[in-house]
Design goal:
Length: 294
């Protein structure tokens, strides 16, 4: 049974995304993409700090260097020193207008994988110009999936052999055989517009997938082979964006949300849109992997 007794963090993120748990300092970190801010919430005292960013940050990776994250900024990959704001660019693969980086996560081998999305199809010259990129240890890039509308739901099975990824525009959560390449295996779940659109996702220690539903107001837990819904956490905002397990025992499920694209009436009806939500669903997560830079 899901415990909903944990109160949310009252913060109005325009487009909260990319949340991760850092077990080293017991904190959640996430981005407000449109607000161009990086947030840190210490646990359990809930002290909130924010950092201004030089570009929109689609997703982030923890690293082995204290105070430095690996950032998937809108234009590409960079090291970002949180205290000083110093940016050290690694690669800028986005060369198409109307395209930016979006969802990303570190694979079980410690490599940052992040993908792009089409914001403006007219400028981009089409609706499927996104690419899923893996940043290798030597700074080179590997293209894993091409022809994407909006990269989302990036996560891996506990053994790292299966990658999950959604192109939100299709409504499909897909599974890939994962190694040096990513080979399409199957559709895990085809969501209908009435259910919501697949946004961020996370895998728990049992291998089940916790999928955020944009427009669906929920996190749903899916059995990875059949795609069957086995649990649901309903939340008081329609646009749920990204989940992450955290807390000392990795049993607290946090979820970012957004108010962007809500008209005035919808936003008035959803005063908690943009907040950071928490639940205890009775599952435990996997420790977030770090990228080794040092």
């Amino acid at each position: 049974m899901t415990d909903h007794s944990l109160p949310p963090v009252t913060i109005a993120n325009c487009l909260g995304e990319g949340i991760v748990w850092d077990e080293r300092d017991q904190s959640f970190r996430w981005t407000d993409i449109e607000g161009r801010k990086l947030f840190r919430l210490s646990w359990p005292d809930r002290e909130l700090t924010e950092t201004d960013l030089p570009q929109r940050l689609g997703s982030l990776a923890l690293t082995d260097i204290d105070g430095v994250i690996l950032a998937a900024f809108e234009a590409g990959f960079a090291q970002f020193a949180i205290a000083s704001g110093e940016v050290e660019w690694i690669a800028k693969p986005v060369s198409i207008p109307g395209v930016r980086f979006n969802d990303g996560r570190v694979d079980r081998q410690g490599r940052f994988v992040a993908g792009t999305m089409v914001e403006d199809a007219d400028k981009a010259g089409g609706e499927r110009k996104g690419t899923l990129w893996r940043l290798e240890a030597d700074g080179s890039l590997t293209s894993l999936v091409e022809g994407i509308g909006i990269t989302n739901a990036l996560c891996w099975s506990p053994d790292g052999a299966t990658m999950y990824h959604a192109d939100t525009t299709t409504g499909a959560l897909n599974a890939y055989r994962y190694g040096e390449t990513a080979e399409f295996d199957r559709v895990v779940r085809q969501f209908t517009p009435e259910e919501g659109w697949p946004d961020g996702a996370s895998v728990d220690a049992a291998g089940d997938i916790w999928q955020a539903l944009w427009g669906g107001g929920a996190l749903v837990c899916l059995e990875p082979t059949s795609g069957r819904e086995i649990d649901r956490v309903s939340l008081p905002a329609s646009q749920i964006t990204c989940p992450a397990f955290g807390g000392p025992d990795l049993d607290i499920l946090a979820a970012t949300s957004a108010w962007t694209d809500l008209d005035d009436a919808r936003r008035a009806a959803e005063p908690e849109a943009g907040q950071l939500f928490f639940a205890r669903p009775g599952a435990r997560g996997l420790a977030e992997m770090c990228v080794r830079l040092g």
